[in-house]
Amino acid sequence: MSEIKTPLSSEAAKNAAPPDTRSLMPRVNVLEDEGGITILADLPGVAKEQLQLKIEGDVLVIEGAMTPFAPGTLEPVYAEVRLSRYRRSFTLSRELDASRTQAGLKDGVLTLRIPKQAKAQPRRISVQVNT
Amino acid sequence: MYESMYMLPAHMTFSGLDRFQHELESAFGISGQPASIRSVAPGTYPAINISTTPTSVEICAFAPGIDASKVDITLDRGVLTLSGERPNDLPENSDTVSVYSRERIGGSFRRAVNLPDDIDPEQVKATYRDGLLIVSLARHESAKPTRIEVQ
C-alpha cells in the first residue's frame, strides 16, 4: 500500500491517454463502512508501473495499460479482450479525504481505500427530550 | 446479465436496450457469424484471447484475483479446460458495510477452448502474472514451418 500523490505530477499528466482513447471499463466493487470507502477494481494485465491514479478536484480517475507480452511473432486468432487500456472515473463526495487514499495492486486487482474526514465519521447524536 | 466490459469501449453510447440487443446478437451468433460451440456470453469470467506463433499456441485468460496454484488446467482430446474458484470478497449481510457496486464475479469458473490438432500435449507451460493466466502450448515439430529447397 502506498500513498497516492495528489495533484498529479506534470510528467504523469503528459503520459496520460487523451480522453478519447478507447478503453475498457474495469469492473468494480464499491463498499462503504464507517471509516471510508473501499473500491476493488479488476485490471488484469496491468503492472504496478502501468497504473495511474489521479484525483482531480472531486473526481477519482483509474487508468491502466496492459503490459504487452509478445513471445516471437504473435498472431491473434481469437480475442474477447480487444483493447489494452482501462479507464474509469468516480465522483467523490466531500466527506471523503482523498489525500489519504491508500492503493494496492495484486494479481490484477486494485484495492483503493479512501478514508472519511475525521470530522465526518459518524457519531451518535443523543436526542434531548424535553418533558 | 453482466454488461460486457470487455467488448465495448467505455465512451460508446450504447444505452439500455440497444446494448442488450447488441450483446444478444454477438453472443448467440445472430449477427451472422457462426459462434463456436463452446462460446459463452460476453463478459464471462475469465475472458480469453488466443494467439499463435510459428512454434506455439498462446492462450491468455484474463483472470484477476485468483490463487493460481489452485487453478485446474486440463488438456483432453484437443480441448483445454481452465477451472477454478475466485474468492468472493464481499461481506455477508453486514450491518456496518454498504455495498454500492458489485460487478466483480466471485465463485467457481470453467472455460474450455478448442485447440488446433498440431499441439504437443507433453509441452504445456502455464504462468500467472498481474492477473493474466497464460498457457503456452508447443506445436509438434512436424507442424513447424520449414523451408523447402527447390531442386
- Class of chain A, according to the CATH hierarchy? Mainly Beta
- CATH topology group of the largest domain in chain B: Immunoglobulin-like
Structural class of chain A, by secondary structure, is mainly beta
Number of helices of chain B: 1
Q: Counting H and I runs of at least 4 residues, what is the number of helices of chain A? A: 1
What is the total domain count of chain B? 2
Explain the overall architecture.
- The complex is a heterodimer of chains A (131) and B (151).
- Chain A is built from 1 helix and 9 strands, in the order βαββββββββ.
- With 131 residues, chain A is mainly β.
- In chain A, β8 and β9 (109-115) form a beta hairpin.
- The longest helix of chain A is centred in the N-terminal third of the chain and has 6 residues, at 10-15.
- Chain B is mainly beta and 151 residues long.
- The longest helix of chain B is centred in the N-terminal third of the chain and has 13 residues, at 16-28.
- Chain B folds into 2 domains: 1-39, no CATH class; 45-143, Immunoglobulin-like.
- In chain B, a hairpin with a 2-residue loop joins β7 and β8 (132-139).
- Chain A binds chain B through residues 20, 22-34, 40, 42-47, 67, 69, 71-83, 87-88, 106-109, and chain B through 2, 5-11, 42, 46-56, 58, 60, 62-66, 68, 89-91, 96-105, 128, 130-132, 134, 136.
- β2 of chain A pairs antiparallel with β5 of chain B, so a sheet runs across the interface.
